[in-house]
Amino acid sequence: MDIREYLRAYRVIQNSGVLKPPCPRCGGEMENDNGENALSRHWDVYICSDCGREEALADIFEEEKPVEEWYAVRLLASSSEIPRKQNGYELDIVNKLEITDEDIDVILSMALDGGITHWYSKVEVVGEYLGKYTSDQISRGGILILHDMEDGKRYELTREKLLSGLQKYLQEHSAVICGQGIDTGEIDALEADRIVQLALFEEVIYG
Predict the structure, then answer these.
(1) How many whole angstroms separate alpha carbon 194 and alpha carbon 4?
(2) Which of 3, 16, 63, 128 is buried most, with the most CB atoms less than 10 Å from its CB?
(3) Strand, coil or helix: what is 110?
(4) How many CB atoms lie within 10 A of CB 179?
């Protein structure tokens, strides 16, 4: 397992809430609530608040601690001193997640307010407004029409399509999963753009 995959798995453990692993950077104690810890500036994993401040200062002076010196990475290296051939087994794991209307509203809001503005020119609400904002339309069963700014093509976005796109996204971004739902705080405008593109095109075609 390479370092990036290992730290991504470490993040999943942090999000599970079942275990309380130490800070992967220094090995120190972490807060129970990830919101009170810091998200590393360089790796997709939570670190303690002290390490968060150290990273910020290190970026200013360009003296970032090499990831090979992180506590968790050194632990991984020490546990893999005697390699042996491993058998491979396939598991078909299905997680049933509850996606709320609020989750959908948050994703659409971030997408429309900045995430997808690099490829769409305008959005149309089909029929009457079902909520206060355009981003409220999908969760309430409405339809949005997105216009491609390059060729003017129109793409219809529905709740079913968005959920399908979100499902594809979560298959590759399990760190967003939190318990039986998702943590939209981990989805920024860029990730919201990816979800919408997967919903409309079944792949990300605009970088």
Answers:
(1) 21
(2) 3
(3) helix
(4) 12
